[in-house]
Structure formats: structure tokens, C-alpha cells
Amino acid sequence: MGGRVTRAFRNFNVENRASREISKEKPTPAPRHPTARLDALADSPEIKEEVFRKDDRFLTLLKDVYVESRDPPVQVKDGGGEHLPCKQEEKRLTKLGYLEGLDVKKVPKGKISIVEALTFLNNHKLQPQIWTAEKIAAEYSLELKEVNSLLEFFIPFTVQEFPKETKKAITGHKPKKLT
Question: Which stretches does UniProt call biased (Basic and acidic residues) (predicted)?
């Protein structure tokens, strides 16, 4: 109901109001800032003459100025734009075994590569008495808390093969015959 009333007031006498606005004289523009008047003064010949006139006193002062510049010594960049670390990080060689071609060769201490992580997770899964969290932390230079978290939350996949007898039991089901 309220929409109809507001629409009626909005549309009331629209054509007359529009023609009245169109027939009005163009509104006067706002006054310009005083800096805008300088453009008109710049076209005057006196100002142009003052700008292009040479001042002998300034020329003599300019001749007394002597600037000497030297290039800084050239630094040879080694490594083709590679950023060097601020502090030297200790690195260790990875313990990869037969997966050597798949992973990086050096890893910072306190970190492991993906292949190493999968290797020690699998070793812990197969032989948890031998590959304890303490031994893994010592072997791979990791913190014990992080190793415990990895062993708790990450489990490697296992492949399971079903024996053939189970397949026969599933496929050997004889459907009932309709008579």
C-alpha cells in the first residue's frame, strides 16, 4: 500500500516539472580558484619575456658549480639473481635409498623431504618397536613433538589384495530361476 502512495507522489505532474527544469537558464558556474587566473597571465608577452630572459648573475653562479660523480664499485652477482640467505643454514644429506632420483639432495636441519617422511612413516608402521619416535627424531634431526604429531596424524596408504576364493564367493552367487 505504501509503495503505491509514494509512486503516486513521485509521478505526480512529472511532465510539467521536467519541462520547467529544461526551460531554465543554464546555471552559473562556481567561481574559480585564484590560481586558475595565472594561466591567463602566462599568455601575456611581459611574463614570457621575463621567463626567457637570461640573467648574467645567475649564469656566473651556475658556472661556479662543479659536480663530480663516481659510479659505485661494481659487485659481481653470483648465481644469476638468486638471493643468498642472511644466515647460513645447516643442511644435511637426505637418506633416500632407492628413491634417490625423486627428491632433493640436501634439506635444512629440522625439516624433512616428502620421500623421507613417507619412508619413516612406512618404517614405523611395519616395525614400530624398532622405529620409535625418539629414533626417528634423532635420525632425521627433528623435534620429538613434531615426530609424534606426524606419527599420530599421518598414515601411509596400504595396498590390500583379496584372495581369489573371496572373488568366487561373490561372483559364484547363483540367481534364482523364475518358473
Answer: 17-27
Reduce the DSSP state of residue 58 to 3 states and report it: helix
Is residue 36 assigned to a domain? no
Q: How many domains does the chain have?
A: 1
Query: CA separation (Å) from 169 to 104, 165, 166, 172?
Result: 47, 6, 5, 5
Report how far residue 117's alpha carbon sits from residue 147's, in angstroms, rounded to the nearest whole number.
10
CA angle 126, 129, 135 (to 5 degrees): 100
Q: What is the pLDDT of residues 59-98, one digit of tens each?
A: 888 888 888 888 888 776 655 555 555 555 666 656 655 5
DSSP string, 98-135: GGGGGS-SEEETT---HHHHHHHHHHHHH-TTTS-HHH
- In one letter, which amino acid is 11? N
**131 occurs within a structural domain:** yes
Rounded distance between C-alpha atoms, residue 66 and residue 97, angstroms: 69
Angle, nearest 10°, between helix axes 114-126 and 144-153?
70
Q: What sign does the dihedral 150-151-154-159 (CA atoms) show?
A: positive
Q: Residue 92, SS3?
A: strand
Give the number of C-alpha atoms closer than 13 A to the C-alpha of residue 163, restricted to the C-beta side: 3
Residue with cell 613417507: 118
